[in-house]
Sequence to fold (541 residues):
Amino acid sequence: MQEQLSLRLKPAEANDESIVRAYISSAAGTDLKNISGFHLIKRSIDARSRQQVWINLTVRAFIGEPFIQRKANTIQFQDVSKATHKVIIVGAGPAGLFAALKLIEKGVQPILLERGKDVRARRRDLAQLNKEGIVNPESNYCFGEGGAGTYSDGKLYTRSTKRGDINRILQLLYQFGAEESVLYDAHPHIGTNKLPQIITAMREQIRNSGGIFLFEKKVTDLILSGDIIKGVKTADGDEMVADDIILATGHSARDIFQLLYDKQVQIDAKSFALGVRIEHHQQLIDSIQYHCVLRDDALPPASYGLVEQVNNRGVFSFCMCPGGIIAPAATNPEELVVNGWSPSKRNNPYANSGMVVQVEQADAIRFFEKRKDLHEQAKLFSLGNKDQWKDSPLLLMQFQSAIEKIAFAAGGGSFVAPAQRMADFCSDKHSSGLPECSYLPGVNSASLSAVLPDFVYKSLQGGFTAFGKKMRGYYTNEAIVVATESRTSSPVRIPRDAISLAHPQFHNLYPCGEGAGYAGGIVSAAMDGERVASRIIEKEK
Ligand SMILES: Cc1cc2nc3c(=O)[nH]c(=O)nc-3n(C[C@H](O)[C@H](O)[C@H](O)COP(=O)(O)OP(=O)(O)OC[C@H]3O[C@@H](n4cnc5c(N)ncnc54)[C@H](O)[C@@H]3O)c2cc1C
Fold:
């Protein structure tokens, strides 16, 4: 028989298969020799007790019957090379890739158009950005095969459980080469070093099944006719047509938002979050979270999630990367954006996390009313006459860009980031020297009160102080605050019908993923890609 059991073990015990079997035998009340094997169903860490960190395991034990190895639910793909139904997908991030795979599974041919390069060629552009401070606007941490998720921590956790089948996404990632642990860890992650192989395997599957996958194919125009979109034009002068178009261009494709605006395709402003990235020594985070001096080798580097209301604004940690590196995630020259990634082992000595504050349209209006110089620079009056700029759907995007430009200038150029020690940040004091930081282009001591808008700066000051009370030791001048974390989600929403998922003006245009405002992270973007593809397939029936 097979029995599902819950076990609570010490970390080293949980890593030792023979000990887990002994626990299973005791929990099932049967002799050890009757346990032929087990599958892990769930694994999570419980560090609430100050005395002992526990590992909670849910296992399916095989008792008195032969053990069967776990089989992946392998999803079969069709040959779509001769399919008559063709769908252009703009953007090969998680949303675009998973949409393409879903279409192929159901016999529809995807034509994936990606402005960036394949994962290997893209790596060279990232090296150039990190070492020489030169950004390629078409190939960077946000643009290129696999989208913003490729050179990330690869955290696969999402709260959007109702938006799709998370297990299916994890199964597919496993099918394309992710480790089995993604299927049972409570907070699975893949790591920057392993993601490119998985993305490559997906591309090969798409091409081997007869899907079309083109790189350095930047969409620059939409061919609109009445209430349909016929196709797209690309930067190299091609015109491509298809039955349906999925727009999955991510949160950084500002040229696409501008294009939609210019063509009077409805878009809406969307609030997003802005702030900084903070970095501590991983050892400090381990000691706080695991209540120890040094982390038990059997435990992974610790993570954290923090949230606080300060002056009626949410301040929260975002995309925490244990054992990670702070990365330059800008897509344009002279705009500074930071984000974070980790390798699969999360074995760098630092722990970084975004620390951000929610920003609304009214905040952007107040900001530009005060900063007339930036108002001019952002050409806000081109967004309408007199006060019309205040209602513009592109206002938050312009605000985001303005802050990134201020940060770039404060860093001193070449993507050197302005930074401050944490306690100095909270007392608005210039840091005379900075601690070591993982950010490769380098950091420059600067007063971040001159970089961030006042409401963001003050909210973060309050947030850091409060976080120091929640996690004793977190508030320290040995931590470094780096500006600016600004690409947390899209500052624009592309509307779509709740049932058909098509744009209200064009019944075969499907806004999708994070850039359209329907996802926030790898898994939710992948689920949204599947969802949109499924709707397109259902429409044909
Ligand atoms: C450094 C970093 C670390 C991250 N870490 C994590 C993490 O650990 N876990 C997590 O869940 N999320 C993480 N994220 C966020 C996550 O990557 C995104 O939420 C996710 O990739 C969004 O998926 P998407 O497909 O909607 O858009 P994107 O991934 O942004 O993909 C959009 C694609 O469209 C392409 N494109 C844009 N414009 C055009 C055009 N005009 N023509 C053709 N192609 C175009 C882009 O090149 C890009 O490849 C991280 C992001 C970054 C930058």
Remarks:
- The first strand starts at residue 2 and ends at 9.
- The chain has three domains: 2-63, 86-266+493-540, 272-485.
- The mean pLDDT is 95.
- The two ends are 43 Å apart (CA to CA).
